[in-house]
TrEMBL record:
Its EC number is 1.9.3.1. One of its GO terms (molecular function) is cytochrome-c oxidase activity. Pfam families: COX3. This is Cytochrome c oxidase polypeptide III.
Amino acid sequence: MSFQPKANRIGLWLFIVSETFLFGAFLSARWYSTGTLKPEHLNQALALGLSIVLLISSVSAFLAETSIRYNHRRNFVIFTSFTIAMGLIFLGGVTIELKEAIISYPPETPYGSSYFMLIGLHAFHVVTGLIALATVLVLGIKGHYGSKDYWAVEGVVKYWHFVDLAWVIIYPTLYLF
């Protein structure tokens, strides 16, 4: 293994740690500004469904990475495409939820500002992840990755897992407590 992939991995983990601090700051601000306010008018069923969609996308992302690691290009394309589709479904659901939530929790209220900032921050990261997934999908279709050169896929999938993990923490913070 050459130095470059090792340096890339260190860089990726440093980036993920810095992103963790960013999300942590906004989660802390939510708890500080609103305490244990339990939201009453949020669409719990939709949020739970979106959580399931993201968790399924995490599994398909893992399967995409595993597929390219073993040179199963067809499966890589299928699983990466499925992951992208799940991410788009998630964003569509978040759009519906935002339209509903703005009525009950205006952005100028403490809970509303925390809610919209966290949802917006996470949605931005989902969009970033989808762009990265689409990029590795196109390059994968063109044959850029194989069993010995799949670092970009590995990095994108790790980022996607981080985005999913962030939602696993955001979901109960905003919708359950």
